[in-house]
Amino acid sequence: MPFTPPVASPSATDRSPFLLAARGEPGPHTPVWFMRQAGRSLPEYRAVREGTTMLESCRRPELVVEITLQPVRRYGVDAAIFYSDIVLPLKAVGFDIEIKPGVGPVVAAPVRDAAGLAAVRPVTPADVPYTSDSVRQLVTELDGTPLIGFAGAPFTVASYLVEGGPSKDHAKTKALMHSDPALWHALADRLADVAIAYLAVQVEAGASAIQLFDSWAGGLSPRDYERFVLPHSAKVFEALAPYGVPRVHFGVNTGELLGHMSEAGADVVGVDWRVPLDEAVRRITAAGGRPKPVQGNLDPALLFAGWDALEPEIDRILEEGKAAPGHIFNLGHGVPPDADPEVLHRIVRHVQRKSARVPA
Q: What pTM was computed for the model?
């Protein structure tokens, strides 16, 4: 049965700077948050995670809540990102996948034939009760700060399953796409269903927005993206549309794909550091779409450049972001593990003050 969102009265969360920008509405300032803001750069994160594996920490609500809240407390960001991992739903349904420190997701039996495909089964709320519990607790604790739910996009998750782990060129994945399109589309379709189910759990528990991470889609040509990836990402965004929450789409090195990624149905398009935001808006619009809010896009490497070099880059991005109907300030990828938390805190303060708008 299709989900029917409840009719709710406006709340502080609804009028938060993040949700206003994601809807293309004016707000008090440009909102800011950071991908991987809850992570290895925070000493409090390392302390609370000590002795616990990544996937185990994602299944313990007390840890999920604490880790998600840590950067909100420390930085004063305008949104929290749910602490989880893109392979968690697969692990939850019994798929043999682990996250090895210093490596990433490693698959015991890569999916390269029909037998491997059979191991990828649908996710139900009963498979991830800890996710629902964590989100509900967080919505209460955040007290008006929006919580962003997330999932891995079909291509990026499939690339781990097919390659057996992280890959620089995704050669096996691309070979499968072209040599056995039927198997590829069956796998991507199942992974779209996994993403839909996991995102639905988060939204129904109270998440205010969702982000679909297609981190490795930038390794594809526009033609291959359109043929092999776009239909499956579009399925995810279409299924989430009835919830009425903003939907963000992000990938790395996707400058040539921005139009297609927008076409997939996102409300907000994430942009990495390689393309200026005003140019990203032009590409999104030129591809036959409409101007959309954008998210990004400070180069994470600049976190180590010193404030004199960093400040003008932040100001440039804020200016370029004005080309969009809404701008959410972020990095062009995740926070590096050796970043200085105080630099991130200073960025948040600067963005919020620099972009502050005088009420009409």
A: 0.94
Per-residue pLDDT at 359: 62
Considering 23, 36, 60, 274, which one is annotated as catalytic?
36
User: Distance (Å, rounded) from C-alpha 84 to C-alpha 248?
Assistant: 17
The question of whether 85 is a catalytic residue gets the answer yes
Query: Annotated catalytic residue: which of 23, 40, 121, 346?
Result: 40
* Percent of the chain topping pLDDT 90: 89
Is 40 labeled as catalytic in the residue annotation? Answer: yes
Going by pLDDT thresholds of 50, 70 and 90, the confidence category of residue 8 is very low
* Active-site residue, from 74, 78, 83, 85: 85
pLDDT over 70 for what percent of the chain? 96
269 contacts 258 by C-beta, under 8 angstroms:
yes
What is d(CA 348, CA 342) in angstroms, rounded to the nearest whole number?
A: 10
Q: 45, 160, 198, 225: which one is catalytic?
A: 160
Helix (H, G, I), strand (E, B) or coil at 243: helix
Tokens encoding 268: 């907000």
SS (H, E, C) 304-354: HCCHHHHHHHHHHHHHHHHHCCCEEEEECCCCCCCCCHHHHHHHHHHHHHH
Q: Residue 174's closest CA among 190, 189, 163, 187?
A: 163
Active site residue 74: no
Phi, psi of 41 (to 5 degrees): -75, -15
- DSSP code of 264? T
User: Rounded to whole angstroms, how far apart are CA atoms 337 and 318?
Assistant: 25
Q: How far is CA 256 from CA 173, 214, 261, 272, in A?
A: 20, 14, 10, 12
- pLDDT (average), residues 220-225: 98
